[in-house]
Amino acid sequence: MLKLLAASALLLSTACAVNAAGPAQPQLSRSAQRGLAFAEQRCAACHGVTANAASPNPESPAFEDIANTPGLTRETLRTFLHDSHNFPEAMNFAVPPRRIRDLADYMVTLQRPDYRPAI
Fold first, then answer.
1. What residue stretches are annotated with the Cytochrome c domain (predicted)?
2. Cα separation of 18 and 47, whole Å?
3. What whole-number distance in Å separates Cα of residue 8 and Cα of residue 13?
4. Closest CA to 42 of 1, 112, 96
5. What is the average per-residue pLDDT within 21-47?
6. pTM confidence score
7. Tell me, what DSSP letter sits at residue 14?
8. 2-11, 66-75, 78-87, 97-106: least confident range
């Protein structure tokens, strides 16, 4: 009986710790995992690339803001990413074509129905 109580207490404390940390993050597809890794390596110097992250460069929108643009879909995001850094005098960067799908697959995981942009 004592072992059963100890096991129950352990389970409850684990559940409380998980809930206290917030909701579980959705499991990312392999493509979205590659997109996140690319974003952390190549985009995070300017953009906030994870949920609730502020952009280091105030002129660069956070990925969460982009992902929650009304009407945005995975397909429209892919099109946008093909030509997203089209200001060569300000940026010397292009998303490699082989990474566009991965990055779009990651960014749409940041969409939330209750999203409200920071003011």
1. 30-111
2. 28
3. 9
4. 96
5. 85
6. 0.73
7. H
8. 2-11
The type of residue at 117 is P
Token pair 């072992």 is found at 3
Q: Of 81 and 25, which is predicted with more confidence?
A: 81
Q: Which pLDDT score, from 0 to 100, does residue 94 have?
A: 81
| Nearest CA among 49, 32, 31 for reference residue 40 | 49
Q: What is the pLDDT of residue 10?
A: 38
Domains of the chain: 28-110 (1.10.760.10)
The values of phi and psi at residue 63, to 5°, are: -60, -35
CA distances from 25 to 9, 21, 97, 110, 112 (A): 25, 11, 27, 10, 12
User: Per the structure block, which two tokens stand in for 26?
Assistant: 């959705």
Reading the block at residue 61, the tokens are 């929108």
Residue 44 Cα distances to 7, 53, 62, 78, angstroms: 42, 10, 9, 19
CA-to-CA distance for 39 and 86, rounded, in angstroms?
A: 18
